[in-house]
Amino acid sequence: MSNKGRFLATDKIPGLLKRLGGTYRVFAPVKVSDTVILFHEFKEGAQLALNKQATLPPKEILFPQTECLLSYTYHKDPENLEKSEVQVEETLEALPTIIFGARPCDARGLMVFDAVFNDGQWRDPYYKARRKATTIVTILCTQPENTCFCTSVGGGPTNTEGSDLVLTPVTGGYFAEPATEKGGALLQDEAFALGHNKADEAREEREKVSLESELELDGIAQCLLELFSTDFWKQVSAKCISCGACTYVCPTCYCFNITDETAGVKGERIRTWDSCMFYQYTLEASGHNPRPTKVERYRNRIGHKFSYHPTNYEGMFGCTGCGRCIKACPVSLDIRQVLREVKVHG
Amino acid sequence: MEAIGKLREDIQKELEDVEFIIGWEQGFDALHATPLFIRSQEDIDRLIWNPLCVHNLASYLPQLKGRKVGVLLKGCDSRSVIQLLQEGLIQREEIVIFGISCPGVVDLSKIRARMNVSQVKRVSFAEGNVTIETPQGREEFPLDEVLATKCLSCQYPTPLIYDHLAGEALSPQRPADLLYKEVEEIEKLDVKERLAHWERELNRCIRCYACRNACPLCVCQDYCAADSRNPHWLSQRAGIGEKVMWHIMHALHVAGRCTDCGECERACPMDIPIQRIRKKINKEIKALFDYEAGVNTEDTPPLYTFQMEESTIREKDW
Ligand code: SF4
Ligand code: SF4
Ligand code: SF4
Ligand code: SF4
Ligand code: SF4
Question: Is the confidence at residue A308, as pLDDT, over 90?
């Protein structure tokens, strides 16, 4: 990283976020209950929670759980009531936004989104506009959790890919280093002090972090294809209750559903999160469902993340190892264990 | 003999006659147990029984109808089975029940609220205390402070139905008048405050439906009205209105059937205290029909019958 680093004292953060709030929508992890930390739009007095991974990743800011794609109104032709015209309005809104306090796995999660919505064969104008308007400030992890396995899937606790400004925890605050120009621009704020004396400490902190790559994932895409039609999936999904929590907390799950919600002559076309763990997800109009039980659905979740996604997107897994699915799963189904077994049986 | 020894022995005896037996094993760290599908002797060796065995394994049974399986049940979990039997959703002869007398299980969210559990190394239980070791040190506190709320007013520590029983049958030790304590606290609020309370809590609901899927009595599952697309009963939006609506829907669909097992709340990744909503309805059902779900296989849930005049509701006097 560069030598352009600055020091950000912990007690300067609320002021910084408040000032940034004048120009940007600023989201930061806030404690919303005894145990839940969410990225909320920062308000003075909010209880910031910067030293732990948030319960949900910040994906909702770029890919809202409910998003209005367009709104429409039907106008009846007074001459001929059989006829009506539809007026359609685009509702795209992309305000300058800062995500403050993401984790490296969260920032990488957005790279998975980028591949699908931003850079590939299909471009999503809604995501694209918001992505462009967003600056990501990431806090590196000096204490990974026992559910973290980012190093096994190409990332790491001190990985800076996908971040604009990177913060390393040091005594009294953070050492801030720009990773992109967008991130560098934030360093103009008065909250950032000269930080020469903190650079060494930051480097040492980063070097101290140990999170060994515990999974051997070479060739897993092929193993998964080989296991496709076997009873393996019955065994590993037995305890799954097909609840979908794992997909909703995941920083890389991007499946969505589109519905027209009409009331009277007006309506909205909305996009909402969907989940491959739900029965309706692949329910066809004929009534046939190619993934009728949790067995096929669980197979899809793992297959998509570790086989089809890397095959389609230059080897990148659809998983950043954040471990949230392990923590959120009501039956503690551990995706790492499943991947180990795939390697043994596949 | 210790409960776990008796369990292993009984399981061994039955294993040949069933497809599998559902119990618990150690999960991904010392603080988490996870369901175990026992098919072999090796699996029996992995079985554990301690206050971390929180899951109500009865939730798996409706989907296994038609197959012969075994299941380990705590006292409260046995009520789910009774309720399912009442409704014909499972068949008694298809299930071998291994009952366990239970002194209480922990609520992991209560532990998460009081300490950082991201690196738990060891957990042990002794003399009414729990000790949790992390790289930062060890913490010890009374088990009662982190027991699941349902355990603090438990009236059925010994299963009400079983083929085998492990552990000494326990009589209820907990005060029954605590049963609706949290509900009563909310009832004290005026209507506006109550609404504000629920809007604040439910606002973090992500409509993932983990609460539904974990509930042993939510048997519609794949055909749930909440996410049916045709007909489209409920907007797919994730606004507070839809969230509240979803919970009213769930609570009403288990009215008179909910056995207070707490799985809905335990499964919630957002730690929303939703069991209270179900409990409130249980309280009303008790007051209206003098009925408690899941205690007698011969009963019929009050909303499953129609009587011109309910014996407990004195309409004519109104
Ligand atoms: S699959 Fe699990 S570990 Fe991987 S990114 Fe999603 S939530 Fe995180
Ligand atoms: S998975 Fe890696 S990047 Fe994410 S919180 Fe854990 S250590 Fe940090
Ligand atoms: S959270 Fe767990 S139980 Fe729920 S769908 Fe995912 S793996 Fe299955
Ligand atoms: S509603 Fe909740 S407490 Fe009631 S039976 Fe279902 S999971 Fe158990
Ligand atoms: S489990 Fe929690 S977050 Fe999910 S739908 Fe139920 S209440 Fe909402």
Answer: yes
